[in-house]
Amino acid sequence: MRKMRRSRAFKKERENNVIDIDDARKQRRKKRKEEKEKREEKQAKSEKGIASQRRRARGYRRRLIYFLIFALIVGVVTYTVWNLHTLRQREAKAQAELQVKQEEKERLELELENVESEESVEQEAREQLHMIRPGETVYILPPDETKKDETDADENSAEENNIDETQKNKSSESETENDKKEETT
Length: 185
Prior knowledge:
Blueprint: H1 8-16, H2 21-116, H3 118-128, H4 145-184
């Protein structure tokens, strides 16, 4: 260490004062002790500060890790519950569709049985194709006033077809009667 320069006034004052060596030693020891205690306090405070900062940082990291683990668990549980919910909705929708398809299948099977019978084939031929059996006469009634506008064109063509068929039937009946008469003679 470098020696400090002292002023002249200090030197003169010192010369006038008588210094007791024992007192000076005690003062120096006391001063050194105080400085040493101050240094130790500073060092302890800094160590405590560093240690407490480390503890705080460690606690913060630990809490952060716990929070992330908790968030991950909540996320997985939420995803699983959502997945189950959507699967149950899909299952209910599929069950409803299955029910509808089974009902439609039963209806179509009954319709198929009806269509394959001779009675239904005959009924469809009469209604849609306007066919008649030999010897039958078809009477066409005038349509109602409310339905007349809607079905005028359809009925006119159907009437013409029916008239032609009845005339053909009559001519074929008369021919069969003539044939029978010729055979008997």
